[in-house]
Amino acid sequence: AETDLRHGKEGKLHLVPHPEDPERTVTLLSPLRPRFTLFHGVAADRRGNVVACPPLGEGAWAAYAATEGVLASVEAIVDDEVIAAMPDRVVIPANRVLGLCEAPLGAHPQSLRTGGLAGVDGYLDDYDFLTDIVAACKDPESAAAWYEKWVGGVGSHADYLERLGGTRRAALVFPPPPGVPVAVEKDRSPADGAAAPTEQEQLIVLGARAIVDLVRERGYDTLLAGIGTSHMSAWLAARLLG
């Protein structure tokens, strides 16, 4: 249970005796209860019943935990009967929603799977946009310029979409309309390995090695890969374990 992640979190992380081994301890985390939770879904009716399609990312737990309620955005606000026909898809009921707005491409630059619910198209991760964010955040001045361009200097969600451009938005739609190229279908030459590894690449490799050591030490046969860097580490570990 000992970890440096506890530092600076006194009063929020609590060490208690392990229920099966009194000589050990486990760490408990105080519940997170935000006043409001922001949530983006696939569609909703005008009463605020929000539907979503797996994968749900972090899920709706933060929405349920909010002490006052949810501020929701969706790809489309549809007629009540459309949502009434799919009650099993309602992730956040109307009685938890304080405010609702329509925001097409509202999860950008992340992807959104819709499964065709309510006739709404899904879209892919905008990896080029994410790459630009990483590059901009390496320097305080370029990070501030990026923030002003895409956040502070954008007057509305409609302005944000206009700045993205119609061609870029169309290329992200999944499944793609006929005749529109898919954003990820690009000729990306593999890296030649000449450049020094980035900090993120080093983190992925070190994480993979740590996973391999734990698997061999404790005999695990199943891994929860997670997303992002942890996902890359898990897959690399699987390759190393062969």
Task: Give the helix/strand layout.
Blueprint: E1 13-17, E2 25-29, E3 36-44, E4 50-51, H1 61-65, E5 69-77, H2 80-84, E6 90-92, E7 97-102, E8 122-123, H3 127-136, H4 140-152, H5 157-164, H6 166-172, E9 173-174, H7 199-218, H8 229-241
Parallel strand pairs: 3-5, 5-7
Antiparallel strand pairs: 1-2, 3-4, 4-6, 8-9
Helix pairs in contact: 7-8
Protein name: Acetate CoA-transferase
InterPro entries: NagB/RpiA_transferase-like
Keywords: Transferase
How do you describe this structure in short?
This protein has 242 residues and is α/β, with parallel strands linked by helices.
Please provide a written account of the structure.
The radius of gyration is 22 Å and the shape is globular. The chain folds into four domains: 1-30, no CATH class; 35-123, Glutaconate Coenzyme A-transferase; 127-184, no CATH class; 199-241, no CATH class. With 242 residues, the chain is an alpha/beta fold. Helices cover 33% and strands 18% of the residues. It is built from eight helices and nine strands. The strands form three sheets. Strands 6-4-3-5-7 form a five-stranded mixed beta sheet. Strands 1-2 form a two-stranded antiparallel ribbon. A two-stranded antiparallel ribbon has the order 8-9. Strand 3 and strand 4 (50-51) form a beta hairpin. The chain has helices at 61-65, 80-84, 127-136, 140-152, 157-164, 166-172, 199-218, 229-241, and strands at residues 13-17, 25-29, 36-44, 50-51, 69-77, 90-92, 97-102, 122-123, 173-174. Helix 7 crosses helix 8 (229-241).
